[in-house]
Specification:
Strand content: 25-35%
Number of helices: 4
CATH superfamily: Gcn5-related N-acetyltransferase (GNAT)
CATH architecture: 3-Layer(aba) Sandwich
Distance between the termini: 46 Å
Largest sheet: 5 strands, mixed
Shape: globular
């Protein structure tokens, strides 16, 4: 198992399909069906942003198993809060056939090391409330709920 930084937007776009399909299933009124060409173009554009890092989890024998898209954020001090630095996990996903094999944990451990090495104080993320698998995974990795985002359909 290996975690690498990548600019391979083709592979990231392909790996995005399973997590996107889950979101479409959970929230069909919010998420469009997966469109590989649009996602490919979008990921290519996102990789131009120097604040974004894309990570690839590789099975040495079988190829890509998952990915993470992270962002380094420096929050300035304000009258309300202290300044701090964080890594924000924009997306993280492991292929369904590779789950429960340590790839998600390997990605999370790599992200934690990157954060420590860069001087970040926190790792932040958000996820959709109906995604119970994500909730269990993040709890397992020591995440706590600091801020709750809610919505109301009108």
């Amino acid at each position: 198992m290996q975690i690498l930084k990548t600019q391979d937007y083709h592979t990231i776009a392909k790996l995005n399909k399973s997590v996107h399909d889950l979101h479409v299933h959970l929230y069909p009124d919010l998420f469009k069906p997966y469109d590989q060409e649009l996602v490919l173009s979008y990921m290519k554009e996102m990789m131009k942003n120097p604040s974004f890092i894309f990570l690839l989890a590789l099975d040495e024998a079988l190829g890509p198993a998952g990915y993470a898209w992270i962002e380094f954020i420096n929050y300035p001090e304000s009258p309300f809060n202290y300044a701090y630095s964080a890594i924000f996990i924009r997306q993280i996903s492991v292929e369904p056939s590779k789950k429960q094999q340590g790839y998600g944990s390997a990605l999370m451990n790599f992200i934690t090391r990157l954060g420590k090495d860069s001087g970040a104080n926190r790792i932040e993320l958000d996820y959709w409330g109906a995604n119970q698998e994500a909730d269990r995974f993040y709890q397992k990795h020591g995440f706590i709920k600091d801020r709750i985002f809610i919505s109301k359909r009108i």
